[in-house]
Design goal:
It is a single chain. By secondary structure, the protein is of the alpha+beta class. It has a single domain, classed as Sufe protein. Chain: A (Alpha-Beta Complex), CATH 3.90.1010. It is 46% helix and 20% strand. The chain is built from 5 helices and 3 strands. A hairpin with an 8-residue loop joins strand 1 and strand 2. The longest helix has 23 residues.
Length: 125
């Protein structure tokens, strides 16, 4: 069963698009169970917080929903706050999600983790 939140983010995805000069960019490909969703996540920083979070996808409904939800959760957050976004926290936001769509949340979290790693490495320089 798909929740209202799932259907809303799938039907009206937020933050779709490219950022020409992102502060971080992560590309991920899902290979779980023959599903080959591809996603690119872009973010900009405004002071010490995520300014924009956008994405481009070739993906199923679950991945569209997952990146829409993730992007809304990332914006305006500091890197430590973004690190707290997890598979479980997104699943809690949704209320429930069929097991066959869990790969979509895992892919979004993989992209988020890559973004965090890139941004933390930039801060160390």
């Amino acid at each position: 069963m798909y929740t209202k939140i799932y259907l809303d983010h799938f039907s009206n995805p937020r933050n779709v698009g490219n950022i020409e000069s992102p502060d971080a960019k992560a590309e991920v490909v899902n290979t779980e169970g023959g599903c080959f969703d591809t996603a690119t996540l872009f973010v900009t920083m405004t002071e010490d917080k995520i300014g924009e979070a956008k994405y481009l996808l070739k993906a199923c409904s679950g991945t569209i929903m997952a990146f829409s939800l993730l992007s809304t959760r990332m914006q305006g957050k500091s890197i430590p706050e973004v690190k707290e976004i997890s598979f479980d926290s997104l699943l809690t936001d949704l209320g429930e999600l069929p097991e066959k769509k869990h790969h979509s949340l895992r892919l979004a979290i993989e992209a988020k983790n890559k973004i965090v790693e890139i941004l933390e490495n930039k801060q160390e320089c």
